[in-house]
Amino acid sequence: xRTATYFFIFLNLSLAVFEEPAVYPLPFLVTSxxxxxxxxxxxxxxxxxxxxxxRNVFWKDTKNICIIVAILLSLTDxxxxxxxxxxxxxxxxxxxxxxxxxxxxxxxxxxxRRAFRSIRNTLPEITYVFLxxxxxxxxxxxxxxxxxxxxxxxxxxxxPYFKNYLEIVxxxxxxxxxxxxxxxxxxxxxxxxxxxxxxxxxxxxxxxxFMSLFLAVVYNNYKKHLKVMFG
Length: 231
Fold this sequence. Notes:
Blueprint: H1 2-14, H2 28-51, H3 55-60, H4 62-86, H5 100-105, H6 110-148, H7 165-176, H8 186-191, H9 196-229
Helix pairs in contact: 1-2, 2-4, 6-7, 6-9
């Protein structure tokens, strides 16, 4: 039963590759039949579990409620999507986001639930570091707006450079990953090479210091909660 459950969970999650918009598109009838089959297996597994569990215990278990709700939502979404498709009305399969619930909440997925529980317990403790990082990002964005926004600079595409505050925040957020480096600083660097110091300082503070601190806090707290959970 465990192997069969895992197989159909994997099959259900894999449908996203074949449903519109798909990497390898298959007819809607095929994907819908496979999904219905998976949902029937999940319902059968849940029914089997209910047979060997006391009724009051079964209905008090949040995991079982989550699975039932996920099955109902998936069937409702599938029916609505199918009807709209008949009338050539374009829509999306919003129930895809509930599919990981089957992976987490079945009794066979105890280890996965423990990992998710550790992540959930870790989140409040890393919030402070994340807020400090966001504060640093917003302050650097404000400085960039004052430094470059009034210089009437333009990007290579001829667009205004660092004029909109939200766009500045996004560009500097991407710079934390260095994905847009050095392109993001070239208009300022062409105006004055001294402006490169601003971007160097930003990368040192946010990429090297904050990201290392963030990773250390996440790792240490996750390890602590995992150790407590496994005794």
